[in-house]
Amino acid sequence: MYPVIRMLWQLYKHRKSEPLPPTGTHVSQHYCLPWDIDLWMELNNGRTLTLYDLGRIPLAHRTGLVGLLRRNRWGLTMAGVSVRYRRRIHAFEKIEMRSRLICWDEKFMYLEQSMWKKNGDCANHALYRSAITDKNGIVRPTEALKQLGLSADPPLMPKWVAAWIAADATRPWPPMQE
Question: For the chain, what are the domain ranges?
Answer without folding.
Answer: 4-13+20-168
